[in-house]
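Hey,
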Amino acid sequence: MSKSSGEGERRGPLKKYRVPALEKAIAILDLVASAEQAYTVTGIHKQLNISKSTVFAILNVLESHDFVRKDEKGSYTIGLRLYQLGMAYISNNDMIKIARPHLKALMHKTGFTVHLGILDEGEILYVDKVEPDSFIKFSTFPGMRSPIHISSLGKAIAAFLEEDQLNRIVAEKGLGKYTPHTLTDPRKFKQSLEEIRQNGYALEDEEGEIGVRCIGAPVFQDESGHASAAVSIVGHTSTLTPDKFAMLGRMVKSTAKDISKEMVMGGSARSRPFSNISRA
């Protein structure tokens, strides 16, 4: 999960105009939204190197608009307003509209939690999630970020990237070790992508978290042959067992193919926002 740093600077192609106060507010929101624990004013100050007085003032404004909420200990978490904005984005995004019925169908067929993710700034950004009524729940959520090499979403997309783009992501982000099974050697990671291209789906076997497996397949937004998104199922190792890999892989691949076909035939022109942000 990525964290912002410095005085709230963000990478991106549009840097012609700068509003320092706004950039700091965005950096604070990024930090609070991506954190696994709540942050105090002091914690945000230390993480972002923004003065305490500025952090306090920005948080007061954000809290007044319900972008953040403060608990009794003075720690901040994201507020309902951010959730509302996220849901508005989802309801107005054509790819998610197109994919959602297919994600639900895959969930009902397999019984597993289903994700839709895209590539954004060299990481996987989860943009939708459909889960069954089960006592096994996963802590993933739309808006969550993940390194490209530890999920089947990331590996499915990586397998169909231009070599230069993939090399740039690996060089900038690295291949960090999350479990004993994580592929951290660039050469071995790239070799694993060849099998994904042959099979049409990716397997992640306890590489991001012990006890969790997922199977993902690429979604092609046009006929370029480059994946713009991916679909995956995730399950516990006790239920997503090796004897089911091939069958489930075909089902995930079929779902991704159906979404791709619908995107190419009727939705691609309306869904360019995903093309614009799927960048290394």
